[in-house]
Inverse folding.
């Protein structure tokens, strides 16, 4: 292991935190990275020395704040290989950057135009373009993901045509860790006079980026994934493209001249930064970039790749673990998504949390990709500059024992006895023959799949109630409790349930499992409401 990781850890006091009796092991970096003192010191300096609004005051504080905020744009431009600050818009995050582009292009899109995405897009891109397509009449096409976790580039070449208006693609998949060939996609887009937007949420944090080499028209990223604060992200756009793009948000700062009937726009990039911007956050983002570049982006990339390879090699020896994405040996970013036979990701996360280890489990905002992988969700361990192989070993130790540990964990006094009882002996599992209606959890809970089946008799009483579920042990136990207890109840009463499960369990479950506990009640209540509404 690079000795640097141990040195780097010194800059992150949060990594000294203990969770219960255990040292924190933070492996949820693809969601948000930790922030070094060098970055959050910026906030103290800003708020104690020069807090003021930018671009508005002829006084020292406003001048200092404006200069620092503008220079932060220069810093980001340099980091991404852009020509200068005119090409860098500060936004809240990657999601807002993509929305800015999608809304800016809205007037250019109409029926017949095509938006080319990939099956591995994050909802930030997928949902945004889906909505813009609905509003404009354009259609969305998807480049498929192959079994090895790559984009099918032959299909991409067929899908990008003269009807394509924009290709929007993740540089790196937040589930598979695949580094996509965005230069080739940029060529395909440009050969067809289309734009390309590169979602850099998972690439800007861990590798050198040169937007000109990528030939990206747009490049979106988030500060909180690259050792910066939340609330700040960015959008690079080629200058002539941004000049032609309609602004997304209107108001102060983004205008040049306003009359009662019209307005003209400010110069780039301020045309896209309406209202008071996140000033301290923007300056802190520049500090995060300074911090990372001191380490060196090549070194960050190599460190992440080394950790990912190590984790993959270790998982490969375990036949009860399924991993997703490119195999050992191929470069990927520092994340590995996986499933452990017989242990749902939420249960695994809780077992890990008991040892101070933080990972993420669910669909990672990529439900369509999980449909392609044919799993409802996955666990994901993701690494950053301060992580070590020793931390991965700690993760593996829990993974190895997860199946054996789960029953004892659910039997512990942190859970109401009914959870273990129903986990061990689920009642009413399986479908109900000829149900009056079924209600699936897909619409209401993220990454957990389950379905209630209800037979209702003529006077509105629940005659039989069953469930089918692929969700975590806790949600399944709760579904079983509900199925047993609500049989014989009036469907109208079920439509009004509010806190029934938490009361039944005397609130005896770990707070981190609240969503798993209340999820099934939400599902059955919604199903009952829909039924009652339809009956009236
Ligand atoms: C590939 C990808 N795109 C977009 C996003 C959205 O980022 P944010 O929530 O910071 O807008 C994420 C976040 O996980 C991501 O991984």
């Amino acid at each position: 292991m690079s000795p640097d990781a141990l040195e780097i850890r010194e800059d992150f006091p949060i990594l000294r935190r203990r969770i219960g009796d255990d040292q924190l092991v933070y492996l949820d970096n693809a969601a948000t990275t930790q922030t070094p003192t060098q970055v959050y010191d910026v906030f103290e300096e800003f708020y104690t020395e020069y807090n003021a609004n930018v671009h508005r005051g002829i006084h020292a504080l406003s001048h200092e704040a404006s200069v620092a905020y503008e220079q932060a744009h220069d810093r980001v431009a340099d980091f991404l290989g852009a020509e200068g600050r005119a090409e860098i818009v500060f936004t809240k995050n990657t999601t807002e950057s993509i929305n800015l582009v999608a809304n800016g292009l809205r007037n250019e899109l109409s029926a017949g135009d095509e938006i080319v995405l990939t099956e591995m897009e994050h909802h930030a891109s997928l949902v945004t373009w889906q909505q813009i397509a609905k509003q404009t009449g354009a259609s969305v096409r998807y480049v498929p993901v192959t079994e090895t976790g790559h984009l099918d580039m032959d299909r991409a070449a067929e899908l990008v045509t003269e009807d394509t208006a924009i290709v929007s693609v993740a540089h790196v998949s937040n589930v598979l860790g695949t580094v996509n060939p965005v230069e080739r996609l940029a060529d395909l887009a440009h050969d067809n006079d289309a734009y390309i937007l590169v979602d850099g949420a998972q690439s800007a944090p861990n590798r050198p980026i040169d937007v000109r080499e990528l030939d990206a028209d747009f490049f979106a990223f988030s500060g909180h994934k690259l050792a910066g604060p939340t609330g700040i992200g960015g959008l690079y756009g080629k200058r002539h493209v941004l000049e032609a793009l309609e602004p997304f948000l209107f108001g102060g700062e983004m205008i040049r001249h306003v009359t009662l009937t019209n307005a003209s726009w400010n110069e780039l990039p301020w045309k896209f930064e309406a209202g008071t911007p996140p000033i301290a956050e923007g300056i802190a983002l520049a500090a995060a970039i300074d911090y990372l570049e001191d380490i060196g982006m090549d070194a960050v990339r190599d460190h992440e790749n080394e950790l990912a390879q190590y984790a993959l090699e270790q998982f490969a020896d375990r036949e009860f673990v399924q991993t997703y994405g490119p195999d050992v040996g191929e470069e990927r970013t520092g994340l590995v998504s996986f499933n452990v036979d017989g242990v749902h990701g939420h249960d695994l996360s809780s077992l890990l949390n008991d040892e101070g280890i933080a990972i993420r489990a669910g669909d990672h905002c990529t439900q369509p990709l999980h449909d392609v992988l044919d799993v409802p969700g996955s666990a994901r361990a993701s690494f950053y500059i301060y992580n070590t192989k020793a931390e991965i070993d700690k993760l593996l130790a829990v993974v190895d024992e997860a199946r054996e540990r789960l029953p004892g964990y659910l039997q512990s006094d942190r859970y109401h006895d009914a959870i273990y009882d129903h986990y061990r002996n689920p009642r009413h599992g399986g479908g109900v023959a000829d149900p009056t209606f079924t209600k699936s959890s897909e619409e209401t809970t993220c990454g957990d799949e389950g379905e209630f089946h209800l037979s209702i008799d003529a006077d509105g009483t629940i005659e039989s109630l069953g469930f089918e579920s692929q969700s975590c042990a806790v949600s399944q136990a709760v579904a079983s409790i509900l199925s047993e207890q609500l049989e014989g109840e009036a469907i109208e009463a079920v439509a009004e349930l509010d806190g029934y499960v938490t009361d039944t369990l005397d609130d005896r479950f770990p707070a981190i499992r609240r969503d798993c506990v209340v999820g099934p009640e939400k599902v059955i209540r919604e199903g009952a409401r829909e039924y009652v509404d339809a009956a009236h």
In short: The pocket of pyridoxal-5'-phosphate is lined by residues 93-95, 122, 124, 170, 174, 199, 201-202, 222 (CB under 6 Å). The chain has a mean pLDDT of 95. DSSP finds 19 helices and 20 strands in the chain.
